[in-house]
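tokens incoming
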């Protein structure tokens, strides 16, 4: 029984590398539907950007006796989400696409919602809901990418791990903040 070589012969690889050279890292071996991948990644980018904005608002609007530590958590999560957005945008460009940062339609492209909240507890809950949405949608993206686009899959796996960490952080914060109503001095939002 003849053994088939594991790798394509070097001459063939070199010849293919010279074809369509302007496509950068997207070679003939790229197995995913690039248009679908770019749409998924732009949706993830929108999700991350909406999360950045929501967390930033919560960072500045949280108020009450425990607000400083929670606001710091919101800011840390916002910075993480911005780093995710940057990673995703870079991957979109690597795949020959254009990252969609247009504010118009950002919320409609995002899987997570932008909900302001009116107390620390409601802000934490809204952020936790958004993290849970991101976790489920990113898991589905990872499954789609599979072996067709292992680079995008690994990137999203890293982002998913951080989103799961955020969800755990927020769930722990909820334990510290029982349901509260606006204006009781311990968890309201700042009024303008």
């Amino acid at each position: 029984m003849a053994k088939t070589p594991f790798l394509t012969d070097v001459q063939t690889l070199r010849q293919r590398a010279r074809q369509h050279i302007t496509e950068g890292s997207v070679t003939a071996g790229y197995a995913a539907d690039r248009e679908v991948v770019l749409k998924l990644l732009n949706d993830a980018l929108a999700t991350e950007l909406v999360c950045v904005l929501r967390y930033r608002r919560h960072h500045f609007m949280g108020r009450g006796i425990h607000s400083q530590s929670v606001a710091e958590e919101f800011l840390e999560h916002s910075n993480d989400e911005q780093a995710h957005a940057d990673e995703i945008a870079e991957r979109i460009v690597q795949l020959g696409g254009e990252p969609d940062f247009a504010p118009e339609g950002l919320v409609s492209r995002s899987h997570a919602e932008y909900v302001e909240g009116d107390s620390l507890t409601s802000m934490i809950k809204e952020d936790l809901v958004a993290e849970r949405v991101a976790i489920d949608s990113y898991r589905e993206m990872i499954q789609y990418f599979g072996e067709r686009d292992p680079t995008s899959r690994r990137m999203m796996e890293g982002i998913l791990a951080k989103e799961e960490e955020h969800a755990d952080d927020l769930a722990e914060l909820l334990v510290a903040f029982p349901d509260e109503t606006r204006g009781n001095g311990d968890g309201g939002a700042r009024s303008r």
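note: Residues 49 and 85 are 6 Å apart (CA to CA).
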